[in-house]
Specification:
Elements (H helix, E strand, L loop, with lengths): L2 H13 L10 E7 H11 L3 E7 L12 H9 L2 E4 L8 H8 L4 E4 L8 E2 L2 E2 L7 H18 L4 H27 L7 E3 L6 H7 L2 E3 L12 H14 L3 E5 L5 H10 L3 E5 L14 H16 L15
Parallel strand pairs: 1-2, 1-3, 3-4, 7-8, 7-9, 9-10
Antiparallel strand pairs: 5-6
Helix pairs in contact: 1-3, 2-5, 5-6, 6-10
This protein binds zinc ion.
Zinc ion binds next to loops.
């Protein structure tokens, strides 16, 4: 065991003596903010939900704290994305010794691969979001069976909203011409969205944010963009905008806005829930893709 874990567990064992109470709230821990919101939509007031990686934070490179270990120990249910997204979650859960039910919400999803690695960003498809909600609902119906009917009703109403947005988006995307279906984002987080709607996403960083592209890789991408002429570039809330700004500078392509790839916005922002995030991302993308394209890629700096 590493020294940091020994310190964390010592702190937890001193502070997590059980409270003698006949009744206490059901406690749920979700690994990241998007998943935390989905759980809240399903359980409503029936449980207390906390999240480990909060709004605008990058789960790929997160380092758990003592408080996180304490929350996991006290939890009745822990929800994680899986597919290699939270590389730190396995040791956090096993080393904490928690007796919580641990549910991987991507169970039953067909993963896609990017450059030989499994793409963990499965929530960026609304069809997968429905599977997440079903997994959350069936786990919670077992954890608090006396509330099964409420959980099922909440989940069904929520899934209906996801399906309505999906159907509306498919209609809007169907009107796009083939030359208006490519965009650039900071890292490869939208493979599932691309698959769902027939779009192409290019990115200077791969499916995690841990490594920066080399100068050569960046130059190759910029050359590719000069010939393929994507419709727009987008910055992400969890990643530094510098790479995308550099690409914009060198290609003359405009930045079409900010996308929320794997964390919600802080309260007051445009993406405080999974549904709000999806509406914001799709609206921002489609507003850019629906602009008329320039006939000549060499005149992209001109208004056209
Ligand atoms: Zn990511």
């Amino acid at each position: 065991m590493t020294r940091i874990w020994a310190l964390i567990l010592a702190a937890v064992s001193l502070s997590s003596l059980p409270v003698a109470a006949e009744h206490r709230d059901v406690r749920i821990v979700a690994s990241f903010s998007i998943l935390g919101d989905m759980v809240k939509q399903v359980v409503g007031d029936l449980a207390t939900v906390s999240t480990i990686v909060g709004p605008d934070a990058d789960a790929h490179v997160y380092q758990p704290s003592v408080a996180d270990a304490r929350d996991v120990v006290a939890a009745d249910v822990v929800f994680v994305n899986g597919l290699g997204f939270e590389t730190w979650a396995g040791s956090l859960i096993s080393q904490s010794g928690t007796e919580a039910v641990v549910q991987v919400v991507t169970a039953g999803i067909t993963p896609i691969e990017v450059d030989g690695s499994v793409d963990p960003h499965a929530w960026n498809s609304l069809a997968n979001g429905t599977i997440y909600v079903q997994n959350i609902a069936s786990t919670m119906a077992k954890a608090i069976p006396e509330h099964r009917d409420t959980i099922t009703a909440n989940a069904n109403a929520y899934i209906a909203e996801l399906e309505t947005l999906h159907a509306r988006t498919r209609k809007r995307v169907a009107a796009l011409t083939p030359d208006r279906r490519t965009v650039v984002t900071a890292h490869d987080a939208f493979g599932y969205l691309a698959d769902a709607y027939g779009l192409t996403f290019l990115a200077p960083q791969g499916i995690d944010t841990e490594s920066e592209p080399s100068a050569q890789e960046l130059a190759t991408l910029i050359d590719q963009l000069k010939t393929e002429a994507p419709a727009a570039l987008f910055v992400e809330n969890i990643a530094s905008p510098e790479l995308v700004q550099q690409i914009s500078h060198e290609t003359g392509l405009a930045i079409g806005g900010q996308l929320f790839s794997e964390a919600l916005s802080e309260l007051g922002g445009p993406a405080t829930s999974y549904l709000a995030m999806f509406r914001h991302n799709l609206g921002t993308l489609l507003d850019a893709l629906e602009q008329p394209s320039c006939a000549n890629p060499n005149t992209r700096n001109d208004p056209c």
